[in-house]
Design brief:
- The chain is mainly β.
- The protein is about 15% helix and about 35% strand.
- It has helices at about 25-35, 45, 60-65, and strands at about 1-5, 10-15, 20, 40, 55, 70, 85-90, 100, 110-115, 125-130.
- The mean pLDDT is about 90.
Length: about 140
């Protein structure tokens, strides 16, 4: 499966049960990458993608198959690490207060590409695409 996350410089994903960003340019970029696929997510994330093809379930990570795409904001990814084929990380070189962090170890992934684009709420958003290096 492909996993998409947004993090700050310390891999923080949330603070006080709130997402760190809701930049519409990230959502548009995700939908452009996967124009014909449903994007799996939980109820919390669904408001960001209300006009797009989404699969909403609070057990979406268990339901997703190898070919599915999952947008993750507030779920542990470590239990699914071996199922991840591609990891897409959006960040913006900022450090926000965080109390929920991504628990993946990037040592298991290889960086394929890194690109920058102008966001709506951030001057520069960095998008990194990794593939899982399975032993």
């Amino acid at each position: 499966m492909d996993i998409i996350i947004c993090v700050d410089d310390h891999f923080g994903m949330m603070f006080n049960k709130r997402r760190q960003s809701r930049d519409i340019r990230i959502v548009e970029d995700i939908v452009n990458m996967y124009p014909s696929q449903y994007i799996y997510m939980n109820t919390y994330s669904s408001s960001l993608f209300s006009n797009y093809k989404i699969h909403i379930s609070n057990t979406f990570l268990q339901e997703a198959s190898a070919d599915d795409v999952c947008f993750v904001e507030n779920e542990s990814l470590l239990p699914y690490q071996n199922n991840i084929q591609k990891l897409i990380i959006y960040h913006w070189n900022k450090l926000y207060p965080s109390d929920y962090f991504c628990d993946l170890n990037l040592n298991k992934f290889k960086l394929l590409s890194s690109t920058e684009f102008q966001g709506n709420s951030h001057d520069k958003i960095i998008k990194e695409i990794y593939i899982h290096e399975k032993n």
